[in-house]
Amino acid sequence: MPKARSKRLSRGFGVLALLGGILVLAGVVGLAYAAFATLTTMLLFGWLLLIGGVVGLLHAVQSRASNYFWLGVVVAALNIAAGVVVIKMPVNAAAALTMFAALLFLTGGVFRLVGSLVVRGPQMAWTLLQGAFDLLLGILVLADWPHSSLYVIGTFISLALLFDGLGLIALGVGGRRAVRSVNSELDSQERSRE
Question: Would you list the DSSP string of 81-130?
Fold first, then answer.
């Protein structure tokens, strides 16, 4: 019985490693074709907004007797409208989202720099470095905006896929090794009993 479980567990870790490999491949392809990855991401985001809005509207209609009916309708309508706009104008949506991301990097960098100088905690050097990196990234993205909007989102999404995939591969390979190690330990204990 334990052998069957360990085979299933090992197979599950193998599937994790395989999924990680697919994510790594998608991340590498996305980095090579960042503009395509940006437009694909924006279209996917638009469709998710649209579908979420339709589902929200159906839910609001089903619960029309509740006090929050109109709030549900308004939120669903906003999601539907935003989804339609993003699907119809993915380049403009990418430009707006890139501007928003750059402003987040700038403000986050400033707050980290100022906060680390004011607090002066044990992690001050790392916080200063992270704040400077965020500030630099925000400045670089804004300096090339709106042209940067063609590749920034695709690059970020591709890097996320790449690192998530590497994490899954590490988890899958490490899990398989752990299962093998436990199995060999159990086998050696069985042999020593005989």
Answer: HHHHHHHH-HHHHHHHHHHHHHHHHHHHHHHHHHHHHHH--TTHHHHHHH
Q: What value does the mean pLDDT of the chain take?
A: 86
Cα dist. 18→157, 161, 174 in Å?
20, 14, 13
pLDDT of residue 21: 92
Please state, in angstroms and rounded to a whole number, the distance separating the CA atoms of residues 131 and 110.
Answer: 6
Residue 147 near residue 135 (C-beta atoms within 8 A):
no
Whether the model clears a pTM of 0.70, i.e. scores above it, the answer is: no
d(C-alpha 107, C-alpha 131), whole Å: 9
CA 145 to the chain's CA centroid:
23
Gap between the Cα atoms of 26 and 44, Å rounded: 15
> Looking at the predicted structure, is the pLDDT value of residue 42 above 60?
yes
Q: Residue 45's CB: how many other CB atoms inside 10 A?
A: 20
How far apart are alpha carbons 17 and 172 in whole angstroms?
A: 5
pLDDT (mean) for 20-44: 90
Task: Give CA–CA dist 126/113, Å, rounded.
Answer: 10
